[in-house]
Design a protein that fits this description.
Two copies of one chain form a homodimer. Chain A is of the alpha/beta class. Chain A has 14 helices and twelve strands. Helix content of chain A is about 45%, strand content about 15%. The N and C termini of chain A lie far apart (about 75 Å). The first copy, chain A, binds a DNA duplex through helix 2 and helix 4.
Chain lengths: ~350, ~350
DNA sequence: ATGAAAGCGCTAACAG
DNA sequence: CTGTTAGCGCTTTCAT
């Protein structure tokens, strides 16, 4: 690994000049520029980005804190974030916390301010807001992404997606189709982040004058397997259900599998809605009707906001930016209930 | 962001002492140690990892080069890699090339040697071996992961998984079940990396004295959608097929969907095998019979080898480490053909 | 046990 | 236009 100094020595100039050549800064004569460039390519010299970051006081990476990158939603988001970051010259550092506060803390301690210029934290069930707030107090730029508690201020600058509204939209779709006996599968704990989607569902049901029986609601993990089991149990307890609201796409797939296992025609006997619209949603069969959240927009906004916070420093206000309202995507898993059609 | 110097000043010692306290190096009296630690926590001081990396000549991240982290196989691998890396104090830098040589080059240029201590490159269809070899020549530790061309030396230290053998195993499973009319769906171009799995399949078929008709083989992208379309076309051209070998899990799901769409019972009318065993495989319905590749082992070996290459420097041999042989995982998508059972 | 000084590789004033 | 001088925040001899 050759250094700036070596290039300078061989080119018979100083490091300052080489530095200027490499970054097109300052005035350099065409002659020296050419000579320097020749040496650079001869040596295969590439600048030490860390050294540069150190002197510029600007680390080159942004940390993305997620609970687990293995949940398909996160990679899609991570990829979108990385794309945005690259446009601004940053690299993406992935921090999987595995929902473990210890790991999250270790990451935040290590990364904040030195290794990473800023931190983008996904709103997960177990996000340690306190840690993040402490980090912000310490002067590290932090932005919370995919915030989904519309009525609670996150105390951190954040990009919010109206998941509550997404729940409303899914419910209204089902109601408009003529369904009245609708069950719900919530892919998080009772106090988890998915409850907001569920509240949206409940409020829309109430607005339509339809009761939501608690026996028709089931909380479970955010996986296909859990969704399948939940659907089986909800359907067993409420055989007359014609539709299932699901707080996320993954459990929705499970519900679809349960329906198939029970010999239920979808959407003839049972309609199912998902939420978020991950890529699998359109590839699954039956293709899933879902409420799409724009990951690319959320990623873009999150990066933009983080950059703003980095720039404004301590004066950065604790803003909440709202991403566009989620959009209904009707595919093959929903339709009018049979009795309504009759 | 407080610095070492500030902590030192407040504690009435020099930076060297603080540094020693923080890293439990050198001899420090219990008294000063305590005093320093008190200031550290009072100030919320955290060392600048970049500065440390600079002086130690050891960047703190390892770059993982993948074509797209959105393909479900990669996040699973990335997560396993990150877990290993953390054990050794490294952070994970994700580099999505999107199969774009320009992006790949940009990443390698930027990252190699300074931002990242080493590079772990996944064997993808479009991996730019030349670039990686050039990087190695420049003294950057590079390890190729998931190499799958058993008969071709990669010219780079690498961790190889015997995908050829995986193809053999899948074929032998189908053959043992009594299938003789078996189609193949290859989730890459004809020259892509999946051909090795396909060759394994073909060789096993040949060994069993079964002909592989070219009309029963279809090349497609490595996605569910493409697999579904491929299965439809293969099945249309060869209605008498009783089984389908698929070079990856994603297209296998598509094949399963095609079977369902055609009213084919699985495995009664049609058996389908996948390859790799991503998490979806057991969650899909019917659950997919597949040949499992251990991502965690491959990740562990890859990291281990990269660390070795980093340590040995220029003397590091261009080794090829083989991961354990893939294992057959029988689930619900395969069974004896109906005519054999009759 | 602690301090002083040098330097990792680079950029940023300011001189000339 | 190019060189000189500092210094980013840290670790590391070598003294004391």
């Amino acid at each position: 690994m050759s250094t700036l100094a070596e290039v300078a020595r061989r080119a018979g100039v100083t490091t300052a000049t080489v530095s200027n050549v490499l970054r097109n800064k300052g005035r350099v004569s065409a002659g020296t520029r050419e000579r320097v460039l020749a040496i650079v390519s001869e040596l295969g010299y590439r600048p030490n980005l860390n050294a540069r970051a150190l002197v510029e006081g600007r680390p080159l990476t942004i940390a993305l804190v997620v609970s687990s990158i293995a949940n398909p939603f996160y990679p899609e988001f991570a990829e979108a974030v990385e794309l945005e970051l690259r446009k601004h010259g940053y690299f993406l550092l992935v921090c999987n916390t595995n929902n473990d506060p210890v790991q999250e803390r270790a990451y935040l301690d290590a990364v904040g301010g030195s290794l990473a210029h800023g931190v983008l934290a996904m709103h997960t069930d177990h996000v340690q807001l306190d840690e993040l707030i402490a980090l912000r107090r310490a002067g590290i730029p932090v932005v919370l992404s995919m915030w989904e508690q519309p009525d609670k201020h996150p105390e951190l600058p954040c990009v919010a997606v109206n998941f509550y509204q997404a729940g409303v939209i899914a419910a209204e779709h089902l109601i408009a189709l003529g369904h009245t006996r609708i069950g719900a599968i919530v892919g998080s704990e009772r106090t988890g982040k998915h409850v907001w989607r569920y509240r949206g569902f409940c409020d829309a049901m109430k607005a339509a004058g339809i009761a939501v029986s608690s026996s028709a609601t089931c909380y479970c993990d955010d996986t296909i397997d859990a969704g399948r089991r939940a659907a089986h149990s909800v359907l067993a307890a409420n055989p007359n259900l014609t539709a299932l609201f699901t707080s996320n796409d993954l459990p929705a797939f499970g519900a679809l599998q349960a329906a198939a296992a029970l010999g239920l025609d979808v959407p003839g006997d049972l309609s199912v809605t998902g939420l978020t619209d991950i890529q699998l949603a359109h590839q699954f069969r039956p293709a899933l009707t879902t409420v799409a959240v724009s990951t690319s927009e959320a990623a873009r906004l999150s990066v933009e906001m983080l950059l703003k916070v980095i720039k404004d420093g301590a004066e950065a206000p604790v803003d909440v930016w709202a991403a566009a309202t989620p959009q209904l995507v009707v595919r093959d898993s929903t339709g009018a209930p049979r009795d309504a059609a009759a």
